[in-house]
Write the structure tokens for this entry.
Amino acid sequence: MKLALVGATGLVGQVMIQVLLEQNFPVTDFYPAASERSVGKLIRFGDKTWKVCSIQDALDARPHIAIFSAGASVSRSWAEKFADAGTFVIDNSSAWRMDNQVPLVVPEVNPHTLSSDTKIIANPNCSTIQMVVALHPLHKAYGIKRLVISTYQSVTGTGVEAVKQLEDERSGRNPKMVYPWPIDLNCFPHGGDFMENGYTAEEMKLVNETRKILEDNSIEITATVVRIPVKGGHSEAVNVEMKKPFEMNEIKNLFMNTPGLILQDNVSENIYPMPLFAEGKDEVFVGRLRKDISRDNALDMWIVADNLRKGAATNAIQIAQLLLDKKLVTP
């Protein structure tokens, strides 16, 4: 099994290496690739040390699978070249997500979209991934009519420089400003560039990607993305209006029987999902379940997951494992 990891030296790339090892993914030849300034650096993977190579060198090796986590511009430049060479590309950027010919995959939700004809596979946005894991069983059982989403997103979603800004602010050092405002002791409703419709790019990802993954463009969706000074994961307050009535015990049973989803909903003991405890875990956590008292057939819930793991690395490795399980990749 030849596997290339493009963006191996980045924050998500490092977590991907960790998850590959934890999941015992059967890699025999590993090609950690990065920008020219990182070529030649050494990366530990398993019981071996590997040299960081150029993206061209990784392409020349004709890997079975290439996982991209180096930004949209790199993916647009290189993904098709790998696909043309017969490599399955799992892309963690936004470059291919809304391409009609590219599946946007969360393994617990839509594994059926993978096929031998789709060499480029898009990994969804981190906030979308965790949300659709919880929404999928609801949509199957009751049909989702409308979503109102507010996210509270970790600085790790922006990258290592944003983490450093937060840490420098907390330490009293003069930070390099990645965000337009201080992030420590603050939060701001700004994720991605602002668009003509008044939404941000991150908010529109939640709208468009959710519809694509759930395969239902009729779902009405509105979203607000907020950046908060935490590192453990993203949190989401989601109001779900459904087409059919429901009982709370039905919802809890659905969630308890959904792979990859853990119900934490015991408010009498202050048990509910938090990024403090989601960090480092691969599951999606859901709680604070309650019927919306203002609207029929509507549910309020709180969803939390580690955005670097299930929101990025873990989901990508799960897709790679699906390619093996479906025998689409045969080393």
Notes: Residues 2-124+312-325 form a domain with the Rossmann fold fold (CATH 3.40.50.720). The longest strand covers residues 144-153.
